[in-house]
Amino acid sequence: MKKLSVLTVLFVCCISIILLIDSQSKLGILNSIEMNKNNNQEINNSLQLKSKQTVEVKNAEQTEEKGIEEKIDASIPAIKKESFIIVIDPGHQAKADLEQEPIGPGAKEMKYKVTGGTSGVITKKPEYVLTLEAANFLKSHLEKRGFQVIMTRSTHDVNISNRERAEIANNYKADLFVRIHADGSESSKTSGFSILAPARENPYTLPIYEDSYQAAQLILANIGKEIPLHQNGIFFRSDMSGFNWSEVPVILPEIGFMTNPEDDRKLSDSSYLSNLMELMASGIEEYAVFKKHN
């Protein structure tokens, strides 16, 4: 009987010990699992923090880059939008005015107020029609760049003398007066773009000679990248009332020879004409930058 009691006690103790060990093991496993969960959470938190920091750094870099871009963008209009005025004169008009006016202030020499111009050897287009088409393209390209543009005429049915056209530019205190024309020649082989500018020795235009020449050079450099030039591209004149009455820098682009079949066809191609005027606008823009810094 005593043996049975002892065995019973030992059996109970063994069972208790086994249950205790099993309980501790389960607790250990649970603790281990919980620790792993905590560790994983810490790793996830760390990764999320690093990801957030990376995003913040990228946002900061983007903000800085945006700030730099905004500063650059702001500097461009500062050059272009400071009331830089360009007066464009589409040469000629529907009906010539052969009355005469002085070639310059106080001059005794007289010239026709405005002639009829030439016409296309193939297209038969009058010069006054072509010059207004070109002027509208140039106006559009310049306005897109932020310039203020004034046109001496927007229709063909006008009567404005060369002196009066120059006086429009003077009244607006234009930074540049652009007189658009097309050329003509007795030889159908003569072709190319050129610019007429006031001559150095011309007493009427002495104050505006340097700026006019500078504008002509910059525009010609841009045009010459894509468009064939006539001879060296710049011709100086003292006999033009549209120059001599001008008190502001002035140039007269001869955009091609309408008496040359190839030039005539190209000048009536709107894509060609628009591109030509865009090249001219780029040259004018360079002149505006030059004037701002000189």
UniProtKB/TrEMBL annotation:
Root EC class: hydrolase
Domain MurNAc-LAA: 166-285
Any Pfam family the entry gives: Amidase_3
UniProt key word Hydrolase: yes
Enzyme Commission (EC) number: 3.5.1.28
Annotated keywords: Hydrolase
Domain of life: Bacteria
MF (Gene Ontology): N-acetylmuramoyl-L-alanine amidase activity
Gene3D superfamilies linked: Zn-dependent exopeptidases
Designated name of the protein: N-acetylmuramoyl-L-alanine amidase
